[in-house]
Design goal:
The protein has a 3-stranded parallel sheet. 51% of the residues lie in helices and 12% in strands. α1 packs parallel to α3. By secondary structure, the protein is mainly α. It is built from 8 helices and 3 strands, in the order αβαααβααβαα. The chain has 2 domains: 121 residues, no CATH class; 33 residues, no CATH class.
């Protein structure tokens, strides 16, 4: 794995013209998450209630498409463009940050400087670590990490 895949991807897929950095969200928030803690469910609830759509905007599996879409080479511009696009009617917008993504973001740029001093922080974890471990095992065995993954597989195979 490269030293910083986030930096590498930003440099590889961004366009030469970055343009102005968008404004910060009115109500920024960051949700620090542990695996299998219900973060996707929380993000969908927040989206459905007008609080923006906090997703793993620094997720390596998805960042290429997002970086190409926003055409940014800098983490601040990329993240703020993405937050602006997914801002809710309330002015709230946020990001989910698992530990690995947080570490890479810090290595590239201090993510707390990007968000704003008024950022709200949430730490989401699962209280029962045995169930969390079982959930991770089942997800690895089945390849189903989110309910939407399961729905698409069932739709294709017709099995449940």
């Amino acid at each position: 794995m490269p030293d910083n895949p986030l930096r590498e991807t930003l440099e590889r897929y961004a366009t030469a013209t970055d343009g102005p950095t968008p404004d910060r969200p009115e109500v920024p928030y960051a949700i620090f998450v542990t695996p299998r803690s219900g973060s996707t469910w929380l993000a969908e609830l927040m989206r459905d209630h007008g609080l923006g759509f906090p997703d793993e905007w620094l997720n390596f599996a998805r960042q290429e498409a997002n970086i190409r879409k926003h055409g940014r080479r800098d983490l601040a511009g990329y993240l703020l463009s993405t937050l602006s696009e997914h801002e809710g009617p309330s002015g709230a917008s946020g990001v989910e940050l698992p530990l690995l993504q947080l570490m890479y973001a810090f290595n590239l740029d201090n993510i707390f400087n990007i968000l704003s001093p008024k950022t709200r922080f949430v730490y989401l974890r699962r209280s029962n670590i045995v169930r969390q471990s079982i959930s991770m095992h089942v997800a690895k065995q089945t390849g189903v990490y989110h309910v939407s993954d399961a729905d698409s597989r069932w739709a294709v195979s017709g099995e449940r």
